[in-house]
């Protein structure tokens, strides 16, 4: 769709959109608004990462999937980004004894992509800059802004203050959003920030003889119940390993020897791959980082301001959807801009109405997977369920879609995906009630076919219910 | 227990405790700390309500129950307060056709008390002032404070700034606590504020011929599903009626005639009692007020600051426990001060550990009752359950205690009360599974006693389970 022919473009040309935050979602949003013809001003508190030597904080690779790709596609960026990603078709589960078992993410041909956060950010900033109406302002720290007039004051690196008046302010300034602080002063703004007891720590697994130290096209997982490690491949043939562990337990490991002892006990196969010396050193390079889940509502303030990305919904990283949800925010907003002809006073409330339930759903799912990934992935029951779900999906691709597939490989709204999933679960529980109810009465003189259904009969009953609904 | 003989008193004498907020919990806390011998400075942003003519905002009467009374008792205030309260032994349910049905709160002799917020606050402030070591500072607005040094800056009514250094800062400054803002800047502080879709509005029902217009020793309830009205008696023989309704619906009533029409439809029995003219006038006196539920954790910052009352846990008003929970905070803190010999560095983390789960539990329960009070109170199923619970409680007073009784008439920790209640519910659901499981198989050729248990058999089974556990 070519927006240059859009009716509203004549009005948008005179309007200033201030995007606060030049991270992933801010940079992508700049492209979206610029493409529509708005005057876009991006304000980022840090220096331009394309010039900076070291980028501090945040994980260095991310899993890009369908929603994120669709959002990139709309501004012509999908191919560029995908070409620099590494496909991961399956999880690769590392058991304690060193055996590795793959669990596919979806059907053949479906995969998620390991992409480099810094590179993706750089590409998006450069893409935003190709629009003549876009100006990127780095080292601009937000001091204050007015919810009534849209007037904003920034502190520049040179100590000077800069004022700007915006028609729309788009807060993409992350989990600790400065823009959001004004929302907290309004009545009836719902907000929550929840830290999980786990912290994370990143380690690098170098190449061996110029090649990946493990199979590259997998997201490697070492599930160990209360904690876990994962590893994602990078273009330079390293892996970034991320150890997730309760802060309490991080506190118990304070010396290099304790690190080795800990890895020997739980991740013995990784010691030769990371290298004992590197492990002892890198483990203490940074303290364990906290993870927060942020939810809020509404996302907008009158017709002046809207929150997107982590500023609106920071999620814990266990569903690989943080960036994808943030990118989909831009896409959904864009769709509503089309529907409501760029009228901010209609678009903003509609965006809140549509998007809040979906973002809340993915925040909850990520929290759910926080438990599932490190524990259930271990169990045979989990593997069996994945197997059943995938098989049923193969037989009835429209009726039974595994949750992971809905979230990762479709644009089914997150909250719809959860609803369908709960429905499937309810059906499963219905089955349980039948089984348990009847077993309790096995002392009665019933015929065998009544006292408990065979597994085959259960499957038939369950399939019948699925089909009836489908 | 006489604290004047307490070992630690010699140290507490030199320590300054700054209580921020001179509302109910702040004033009570001042008594507690003063009684221990601390130098207590209370800072309240408003004027002294004992001198002010009109007290704005907040509901004017509250339900005092066991926890609150125990907390008052400890500082010798129970009798004074109780003597000015009006006992309410039962709910009085007003149906649409005007019939009234009482539902007792507990056993004979158990009641909650309708108390006047302003009077209670005044009494507590005066009680705090009887301690020579206590200073009350009104019209002092907190500007800033240091989490490291405990230094605080206040803005006085005369425009001057005042500095004070405290050994301990106790934040009792309500749901929108200024003290809590510093907590939000710390890492790993969990926080949520949730507004419910309902607002509330207060109306006064005057005496008729010098007497209460309705039976005084009841909490009157008009449950109407999506909304409801309640009325509590006051010492001056008025009732304060509070209408709870979704904000959307408040917006639909904009003229005096619409008010009458609305009351005619839903609360016809109250129109002659409130008076049509008063109703038309008072309904629009103030806009509908919002209600917020606040949860956070931890409650303390190092050994310097602790949050109590609404600052730590604002709850929606539907369990009548907001003030009681806040008062119990003071009591629990006091108990831990005894246990840990007034060592703030030990007392504060212990207070967080002990109190957070209980306050979160009552916040959740209040939210649960938000639904129950306005809808289920209507239904026969609810009445039946109350009846069963109360009967079982009479037979087995230690094993089966109705949730409402545990919350209102005991000091069983809130989270323990919820646990016991969930257990009872689980037992009930077990019963349901049995019933439903067997009914599904009624097509099979079973004997009648197998296909569905009689009500009597259910009751026996359920009682057996209860007794086994007890």
TrEMBL record, chains A, B:
Kindly state one GO CC term assigned in the UniProt record: mitochondrial outer membrane
**Cofactor requirements of the protein:** FAD
Pathway given for this chain reads: Cofactor biosynthesis; NAD(+) biosynthesis; quinolinate from L-kynurenine: step 1/3
Topological relation to the membrane, as annotated: Multi-pass membrane protein
Pfam families referenced in this protein's UniProt entry, alphabetically:
FAD_binding_3
- The UniProt record lists the EC number as 1.14.13.9
Q: What keywords is this UniProt entry annotated with?
A: FAD, Flavoprotein, Membrane, Mitochondrion, Mitochondrion outer membrane, Monooxygenase, NADP, Oxidoreductase, Pyridine nucleotide biosynthesis, Transmembrane, Transmembrane helix
The chain positions of domain FAD-binding read 17-331
Single GO MF annotation: FAD binding
Keyword Cell wall biogenesis/degradation among UniProt keywords: no
Q: Which GO terms describe its biological process?
A: 'de novo' NAD+ biosynthetic process from L-tryptophan; anthranilate metabolic process; kynurenine metabolic process; L-tryptophan catabolic process; quinolinate biosynthetic process
**Compartment(s) of residence:** Mitochondrion outer membrane
Main enzyme class: oxidoreductase
Into which family does the record put it? Belongs to the aromatic-ring hydroxylase family. KMO subfamily.
What is this protein's function?
A: Catalyzes the hydroxylation of L-kynurenine (L-Kyn) to form 3-hydroxy-L-kynurenine (L-3OHKyn). Required for synthesis of quinolinic acid, a neurotoxic NMDA receptor antagonist and potential endogenous inhibitor of NMDA receptor signaling in axonal targeting, synaptogenesis and apoptosis during brain development. Quinolinic acid may also affect NMDA receptor signaling in pancreatic beta cells, osteoblasts, myocardial cells, and the gastrointestinal tract.
> Which PANTHER family does the UniProt entry name for this protein?
KYNURENINE 3-MONOOXYGENASE (PTHR46028:SF2)
**Do you know which HAMAP family this protein is assigned to?**
Kynurenine_monooxygenase (MF_01971)
Instruction: Give the protein name, as stated in the record.
Output: Kynurenine 3-monooxygenase
Gene name of the encoded protein: KMO
């Amino acid at each position: 769709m070519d927006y240059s022919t859009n009716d509203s473009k004549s009005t948008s040309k005179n309007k200033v959109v201030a995007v606060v935050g030049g991270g992933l979602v801010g940079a992508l949003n700049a492209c979206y608004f610029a493409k529509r013809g708005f005057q876009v001003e991006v304000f980022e508190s840090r220096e331009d990462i394309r010039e900076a030597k070291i980028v501090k904080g945040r994980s260095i690779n991310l899993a890009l999937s369908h929603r994120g790709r669709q959002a990139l596609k709309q501004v012509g960026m999908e191919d560029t980004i995908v070409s620099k990603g590494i496909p991961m078709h399956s999880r690769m589960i590392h058991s304690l004894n060193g055996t590795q078992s793959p669990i596919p993410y979806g059907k053949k041909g479906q995969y998620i992509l390991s992409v480099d956060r810094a590179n993706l950010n750089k590409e998006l900033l450069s893409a935003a800059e190709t629009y003549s109406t876009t100006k990127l302002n780095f080292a601009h720290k937000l001091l204050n802004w007015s919810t009534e007039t849209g007037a904003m004051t920034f502190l520049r690196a040179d100590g000077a203050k800069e004022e700007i008046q915006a028609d729309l302010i788009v807060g993409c300034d992350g989990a600790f959003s400065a823009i959001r602080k004004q929302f907290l002063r309004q009545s009836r703004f719902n907000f929550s920030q929840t830290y999980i007891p786990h912290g994370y720590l990143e380690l690098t697994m170098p190449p061996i003889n110029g090649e990946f130290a493990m199979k590259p096209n997998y997201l490697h997982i070492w599930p160990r119940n209360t904690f876990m490690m994962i590893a994602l491949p990078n273009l330079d043939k390293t892996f970034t390993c991320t150890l997730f562990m309760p802060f309490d337990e991080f506190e118990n490991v304070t010396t290099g020897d304790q690190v080795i002892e800990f890895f020997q006990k739980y991740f013995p196969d990784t010691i030769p791959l990371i290298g004992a010396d590197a492990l002892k050193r890198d483990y203490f390079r940074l303290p364990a980082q906290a993870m927060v889940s942020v939810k809020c509502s509404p996302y907008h303030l009158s017709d002046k301001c809207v929150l997107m990305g982590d500023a609106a919904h920071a999620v814990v990283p266990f569903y690989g959807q943080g960036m994808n949800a943030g990118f989909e925010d831009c896409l959904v907003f864009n769709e509503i801009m089309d529907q409501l002809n760029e009228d901010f006073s209609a678009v903003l409330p509609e965006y809140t109405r549509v998007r809040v339930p979906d973002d809340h759903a993915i925040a909850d799912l990520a929290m759910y997977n926080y438990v599932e990934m490190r524990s259930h992935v271990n169990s045979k029951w989990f593997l069996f369920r994945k197997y059943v779900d995938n098989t049923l999906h193969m037989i009835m691709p429209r009726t039974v879609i595994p949750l992971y597939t809905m979230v990762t490989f479709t644009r089914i709204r997150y909250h719809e995906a959860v609803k369908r999933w709960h429905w499937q679960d309810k059906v499963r529980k219905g089955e349980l009630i039948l089984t348990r109810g009847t077993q309790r009465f096995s002392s009665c003189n019933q015929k065998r076919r009544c006292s408990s259904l065979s597994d085959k009969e259960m499957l038939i009953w369950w399939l019948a219910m699925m089909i009836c609904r489908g």
